[in-house]
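Take a specimen:
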Amino acid sequence: MRKDGSTLWVRETVRLVEDDCGALVMLLACEDITERKRTEEALRESESRFRIMADTAPTLIWMAGLDKLCTYFNQVWLDYTGRTMEQELGNGWTDGVHQEDIDRCRKTYVEAFERREPFQMEYRLRKADGQYGWVFDKGVPRHFPSGEFAGYIGTCIDVTERKWAEAALQASDAFTRAVLNSLSAHVCVLDKEGGIVTTNDAWKEFARKHADGTFIFGEVGDNYFDYCRRTIAGTLIGQAILKGIEDVLMGSELSCVSEYACHSPEEERWFLMRVTPLKDAKGVVISHTDISRRVRMGLELEQQAVLLGEKQKELESLAGKLIEAQEAERKRIARELHDDFNQRLAALSVELESMERTPIALPELIMRQLAAIRIQAGTLCDDLHDLAYRLHPSLLEHVGLEIAARDHVAEFAKRTGLSVRFTGREVPKTLSPEVATNLFRVLQESLQNVSKHAQATDVTVRLSGSSKGVGLSVRDNGQGFDLEDKIAGAKGLGLVSMQERTRGLGGFLRIHSLPRSGTKICAWIPQLQEDA
């Protein structure tokens, strides 16, 4: 205690030493340590204030010494982790770090210590409830008043919500990117000035393929309007499209849809462009969909409609001709029955009536009259049979196509006196009634045309078959005709009916003819599935 009543701190040291006579003497030394004690009290007070501030701060605080071991954790840290100070001191705090982050965390911590540099890192730290939260840890080196390195002090803040938000944003961006890239349309996003912000893969691929300038779309960072103005300069449709994009971008229009052609010397292409605004008028989304296939299909449909109309007219004409032919055939049959068969039957009736009126006739005269009547009746029967055969060849149903065709050729040669040769090769024994009947009708019509128009002296008929179908050819050495003129002019019913018969069964008819060079008609019909 000083005279003035103030307190003095002293450090007293006592030693026993020998004097010159060898006697023990006690030496007492006092050192004034008042300033040091004041400094220590100030330091303790400072540390107390630091701990109070650290424990009340809304962040996790730690301290480490020169040996890299942690010497202090504030109460917020302990509350966050649910552990005691003893458990966390040293390297105990690393027990709460997520296993996937521990190696990276230690490496960052040790390297910063060795370089005496500040560091920052993010890692997952186990909370009191057992769940992991993301923390952002920032450490800085601390020093003694003398300037010597004393260790590190660090603060951590919980960034779990931010990490979740970042993950959600990344997932949203990835989802948006995946959706954009899944679209076949070429899509880009423009900012308010018309700059290209992002594009999908289809847009990039199209821009890469047409980098020569044929179709210019632009890339990220380019101004889309500049490309448009260069590409569509002088075209009304292009100017209308550009104005539509600007109107949507300025908000005067809700959307814009346009179809346009964009042709090159190598190909013709059409696109459908859609422009829709982004939220808060921050830009627009533009998509170009290649509709070339749809447009080409539309053009083809228009052409097919025209052809269908022409075919409809041909069918109407054919239907009229068929009706006319039916009436003509009926008139012919009626005329033959009336003018020929009726008269011949009347003649037979007169002959029989004459025999009845003759009172007495010599047997020889009666025999001659009966013989003449018999001959007339036989001829009449043959003619009636021929007429019925021409209307419906029943022989087809009983003996097949080859024998019926051979019989018809023989009858035709006998009736017309023409030289007709018939050959048959590998003709199936069983054919569907449709195939056999239609080929037989083609044969009938071809031979009838020969007798009426060809003026031929020699005719060859060939009938051949295979596993795929049956073919027929009729060739003559007549006067022939100009096939192109025949097709260009009004077709006769005979050629039309033959073509329709073969076409209706999936086959074809070919006609080869030149003036004064004869005519050859070839027909082929595939066998039906059940016949094959």
Notes: The mean pLDDT is 82. The radius of gyration is 57 Å. The CA atoms of residues 144 and 160 lie 35 Å apart.
